[in-house]
Amino acid sequence: MGTWDDGLYDNDSALDLLHDLVEAGDDAGDPARIVARLGLRAWLNPVSVAPGDRLQAIVDALDDAALATFPEPTRVALAALFRDPEKATKKSSRTRKVTAILGGYSDGPRIDPLLRFPGAAPVLEELAERCAVRLDRTLARKVDLYEVAGDLAALGVLIELTQADLWRPDPARVTRWRLGFDAIDAATTEERGFWWKYVRRVRNGFELIAPGTAPPKSAPIRRKPAPPPPPFEPVERFLHPKFGAATLVNRTRSGGMETLELCFDDGEVRKVLAHFVTRLAR
User: How far apart are alpha carbons 155 and 47 in whole angstroms?
Assistant: First the structure.
C-alpha cells in the first residue's frame, strides 16, 4: 500500500476496493439502476465519472423514453451531470465528522435526485449488503491491522450511506464487527505508534453507523477472599540440658517415643525425644 495516512480511505488498497464496491453490479439495461449507480459513482467514487466513452455509453443507454419516466429533479440532475461531469462532481458532501474518519479521498457530491427516486432503493441496498458481507468475512479473520486496512473501505461506504439516511444497519451485526476488530487490534503488536490513530477512527466509524453497539468491557474478575488465618497457636518453649532453650516447631509420635522438632535459640533445628527436655512456663 503506497499511500498511507490515518483515515479509512487513506491507503491504496482501500481506494481500490472502494472502486470495486461502487462499480460492482449488473444494470442489465434497467434505466432506474443505471441512474442510481451513476449517482453512487458521482458521490462515492467521483473520479469514475468523467467525460469519455464510458460516460457516453451511459448517456446512450438512457433514451428520451427512459428519461421521461424519471421525476423532473432527477432529469435536471442528470442533464447537469452529462453536460459538465467535472463541474458537477467537484463539490464535496462529506461532513467534518465523517472526513475525520475517512480522510479526504473520493469525496464527491451527494446528488439526492439521483439516489432518492422510485427504483433506486434496491441498488443502494445491494451496495450496502456487499459492504456488510465484506466486513463479515474480513473481521472474522485472525490477522493483523495491516492486512485488513484495505477491506475497511467497506466500513467507509456504510458510514456514508448511514449518515445520508440511505441505509440502516443491524446493530447485532455491527457488534460482531466491533468484536472482530478488537481481536485483530489486540493481535497487532507491530508499529503501534501509527496504529492507535487509525484504530480510533475505525471505532468512531462503528459508533457513527450504530451508536451504543460497543461490546461491554469485561467485568473485573472477582476472586474469592483468602481464608482467614488459622487461630493463633501459643508458642511452646522447652529447655534442653545441652543445647539450651528452644521453640516448638512440630510434634510427632506419642507416648515414650514422642518426638519434638525444636528451633533452638542458636538457630539450629533439632529433633529430640520429649523426655530429654523440660517444658518452660509461659
Answer: 20
